Records
---
Amino acid sequence: MQIIFIAAILLGIIFIAFSIRFTWWWRPFYNGFAVFMYHHVRPAYQNKRGEDLSFAITPETFEEHVKYLITKGYNFIGLEDLSSNNIKKPAMLTFDDGYVDNYKFVFPILKKYNIKAVIFLIAGKIGIDPELMTWEQVYEMQNSGLVSFGSHGLTHANIRRMEASSAIKELKESKHILETKLGHSISAFCYPLGAGGTDERVRKLVFDAGYLFDFSTRRGLNPWPLKSDRTIYRAFPRGKETKLDFILQTHLGRSKL
Ligand SMILES: [Zn+2]
C-alpha cells in the first residue's frame, strides 16, 4: 500500500515537472511585460506578385491590437520608461527597420489614441533607401513625444558574422549618427536579422558600445521591472493571425501553444 502511495507521488511530481517544462499552461498567469515586434504596416500585405509578406500587417489589424490592449488596461511605454519600476501593466509596440509606412499608417494611430511606440532605425540608410523614413519624418515623430528611437545597426548586416572591428563600427557609428541627429542619448539596440544575428559575443559588444538595452526576436514575455542580464524578448504578431492569436501573443509572448 505504501509503495503504491509513493509511486503515485513520484508520478505526480514527474507529471508536474513535465508540464512545466513542455507546456505553457501556467504562462497566462505570469504577469510578464509584452513587447510586440512589427515591421511593415500597410493596407496590402501581399506584394505585386501576390506573395504574402509575412512581416506585414494592415493598419486595421494594428488598430485592433491597440484597441485590445487599451481595453485590457495596458500602458504603452517608450524606451525612456524602461528603467521605471512604477508603471503598472506596461506594453511596448516596436517597429524594426523604420519603414515609411510606419510614418504613413502607424503614426496617425499613435496620435489618435495618444500612445507611445518605439522604432529601430537603420542609421546608415535613412534618407537613402526609399522604403525607409526620411529624417524629416523621424523628427516629426520624435517631436510628437510619442515615438522613441533605437538603433537597428548601420547597414542591417548580420553582426554575428562580422569581425570585432566591423561589428563595433555597426554598433558605435549607428549610435553616434542617431545621437547627433536626434540630440539625445540612444539607449537601445535591436539586432538585425533576429536571433541569427546575435550571440553572447555580440551582446557584450552591444553593452561595451554604451547601449543599456538589447532587443531580440526571441519569443516570450519579459520580467517587469526588467533585468539587465536578459535580452528583451518580443512577441511577433503576423498579418494573417486571428484575434485569439493576438490574445495569446499578449499573454504568452507567442501565438501557438
Ligand atoms: Zn530588421
Note: The chain has two domains: 1-30, 31-252.
---
Amino acid sequence: MSHILCNLDGQIVDAAKATVSVLDRSFLFGDSIYEVVRTHRGRLFGVTRHLARLERSAARLGFEVPIDEAELRRRIVDLVAALGATGETYVRVVVSRGTASEPNIDPACTVSGPLVVLYARELSPPDPRWRTTGLSARVVDVLRNDRRALDPAVKSGNYLNNILGLMDAKRHAADIALFLGTQGQLTESETSNVWLVHGDRLRTPSLESGILAGITRDYVLEMLRRDGTACEECMLTESDLRTADEVFLTSTVKDVCGITSLDGSPIGCGEVGPVTRDVGERFAVELDRLVEAESSTSS
Ligand SMILES: Cc1ncc(COP(=O)(O)O)c(C=O)c1O
C-alpha cells in the first residue's frame, strides 16, 4: 500500500497515527462530505471548482466548512509538498459534521465543530485498459438515489448505494456499475459520469437526471463546445445505453475511460471507439492547458 499522509484539523500526520473519535458523525452515519483532487504534471488541477462543490455539498447538508477556501487550498498544497510523491498525487478532502455526544442521529447532539481531514497518496498510474481494451459495465439492480432523497448532486461521505451497486457489478464479473434512476433514466457510474455515442451524436445525462455534477464532465463539455463539437446534456434511457456505438466515463481519477462491454455483451465493435479515443486525446492536451492556466492565475 502506498504511503498515506494526512492533515488532521491543521496538523500533518502519518495516516497510521491520524485518529478520529468513534463518536465522529462520519463514522457513525456517513454524515460528511468529500472531494478528490489530483495533480497533473505535478501541479494541482481544478481545485477552485472542487472546493466550490465542497461548499455546495456542505450547504445542502446544513453545515459549514470551518476554514476558508484559501486555508483549505494552502493545506492541500502543503500536504502535496510534504508527501513528495515521485508521480502524481491524489488528495481526498473530507469534512465531517463533527463529533456527537452519543450515537444519536440528531445533528443537535453534535458537540464539536466540523472536522477537516485531508489524505494524500501517490496517484496510481492509469490502468492501461481505460484507453486500450476498455472496462466492462453492468446495469445494476440498485437504483441511483432519487434527487428527493440523498441528492446525488451532494458529494457526501455516504456512498453505500454506490458500494452496493459496485458489489453487484463485481459479482457479475463487471468492472463498474451503471445506475438507472427511479424514472428508468440513465444516471452515472459509482464514481464517474457516463457519456454515450450514437454515430456522431455525443450525449451525457443532464443534471436533472440525478447525477453528481462531475468537474471532469464540466471541463470536457466546455472543451467540446469551445472546439465546436456538438454534445448534448439530456435525459437518456436504458435503451439509449444499450444501442450506443460507444460508451465512456469521465472522472478526476480516470479522465476519459472507455467502456466496451455491457452485461457481458460487446458495446459497438467491443473496442474503445474513435470518438472516445478522440475525446481522451483532446482532454489530455486540455489538461496541460488547464494546469498551465491555473498556475499562472494563482501565482
Ligand atoms: C458518483 C460520482 N459521479 C461522478 C464523479 C466524477 O466527478 P469528478 O469528475 O468531479 O471526479 C464522481 C467522482 O468521484 C462520483 O463519485
Note: Residues 128-289 form a domain with the D-amino Acid Aminotransferase; Chain A, domain 2 fold (CATH 3.20.10.10).
